[in-house]
């Protein structure tokens, strides 16, 4: 009985041992498979995380750029508001001051459409309102003091009269095509001491960014 039991125990141990070895091998195999899977999963997770991180970073960079642009725009708006002068129009420039067909084009042309509002570039007093068929058409002169005068020509409509005090940015005419004009636009002049100067260069010198 004792021996039998011993044998049974030995066999049992042997079986257990064999089973144990088999299980260990299976486990190792499983681990190998598992570890392969885990490696792939880790790689995929890393890739996904990296993509997400890159997307998040790009989003953050975009948001930061938008914030910076908004801040720059606000700062520029504040800077322009603090200047004593403004643009007469935000339309793009279609013709510059300079010699044209042997004659001086004494102003800057802005490509305003018929009826668009044109603003006084600074505080001043309306010194002349007239109609000149071959030239300015309906025109307004504004005296800003210190020998500075501005002129706004080819108006479809004049909204001020001589003697009116105007503020910087106040609408003085509506753009048009009157006088010697081929298509609606604003012809804008600056005179200093009675002499026409390059009005675009003058605007830029005041810190403005004409279009
Ligand atoms: Zn012109």
From TrEMBL:
Cross-referenced CDD domains: M23_peptidase (cd12797)
This protein's UniProt keywords: Signal
Residues annotated as signal peptide: 1-18
Coiled coil: none
Protein name: M23 family metallopeptidase
Pfam families to which the protein is assigned, alphabetical: Peptidase_M23
InterPro entries documented for this protein: Cell_wall_metabolism_enzyme, Dup_hybrid_motif, M23ase_b-sheet_dom
Domain M23ase beta-sheet core residues, every copy: 104-198
Transmembrane portions of the chain: none
Top-rank taxon, per record: Bacteria
